[in-house]
Amino acid sequence: MTDIVDQGLIALHQVETTTTIKKTQIYDLMARGLFPKPIKLTPEGRRVAWLKSEVLQWVADRVKDSRSAT
Questions:
Q1: Do 26 and 12 meet the contact criterion of CB atoms below 8 Å apart?
Q2: Where are the domains positioned within the chain?
Q3: Which of 14, 41, 50, 60 registers the highest number of CB atoms within 10 A of its CB?
């Protein structure tokens, strides 16, 4: 469990900056199972964050897919 916490959490605005994708498209991709789901930080789920490692892996996968398509 400590390993997961050590990876760090990032807020939506940081996800947008990291991926260059806006909130609406991020949530659309999540709904289609194409983007990592956030971690609920409050019981009602009003505050969420993403594991930084999962978002960075998603970006790396996009780069890999883009490079192998050529």
A1: yes
A2: 2-68
A3: 50
Which CATH number does the domain 2-68 belong to among 1.10.1660, 1.10.3470, 1.10.510, 3.40.630? 1.10.1660
Do 4 and 51 meet the contact criterion of CB atoms below 8 Å apart?
A: yes
Whole-angstrom Cα distance, residue 36 to residue 39? 10
Residue 13: other Cβ atoms inside 10 A: 9
Please give the model's pTM, rounded to 2 decimal places.
Answer: 0.85
Tokens standing for 21?
Answer: 């994708």
Three-state secondary structure call for residue 13: helix
Confidence category of residue 7, pLDDT binned at 50, 70, 90: confident
Distance of CA 26 to the CA centre of its chain: 8
